[in-house]
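Support request, please re-run this one:
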Amino acid sequence: MVIPYPYPHIVIEDALDEEVYNQLEENFPADERFAPGHKLQSNVRYNMPAAQCLTPSANATLPDVWLDFVRYHSSPDFYREVADLFGSLLPHFRRDLKVLRSDMHRVRTAVRGWEKNVTDISLEAQIAINSPVKKESSVRRAHYDDPAEIYAGLLYFRHDNDTSKGGDLEVYKCKGRCRKATERQAKRLGLRSSQKEFFAPNTLQRTNVVRYAKNVFVLFINSVKSLHGVTKRGVTRFSRRIVNFTAQVRAGMVKQAPRG
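Re-run finished. Output below.
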């Protein structure tokens, strides 16, 4: 069921068939695969994009269950599945994107990184981690994603032995109008404008929390109103393991102005 407020999103527990989830979890890439030859920094996002996973060199090391999963979730079929799920909410919430008012069967998609000049929408299904934590911290505070993204989703693969706290996704709305953090606030809170973490916390209201738990899936329509963040993670030797799903239009197709 789509939760319409404060922006359309869904949360599904036990999202995948148990057998499929277990096969994926058992074969989730080891942490060192995400930064070969480099030491992982504390609580930092590392990605294995679909284009990388589906190249012949990766095919030799990723099991078929992962190749099939990434291939489907970066395909036109999955894009249409998401479009069907949100229905009229998608073009209504993103009125700035004309491509969403087109016949979805005529929209030209490609895996992100494999785009051609005629590509309308780039699709991503990247395996990712937030690395182990040496000091309590949040990987990302309240922010909005790139306005070129149509939707964004996360599927969690929490390790059975991970008993640490945090790593939950928080959904926010503005209390009236969100205000930009002052330079002093931003410095004190460690906000990074490069990650669109502009907002003074006292102007935000949390409306939902999606716990970081195994086989939990969250998906939302993205816009500059789709504010969300990740709760602080406690010290742990385990990574926060996820798959991130997105659909993204060309930058020139976006007319939304950044909010602040």
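The chain has a mean pLDDT of 90. The longest helix spans residues 76-86.
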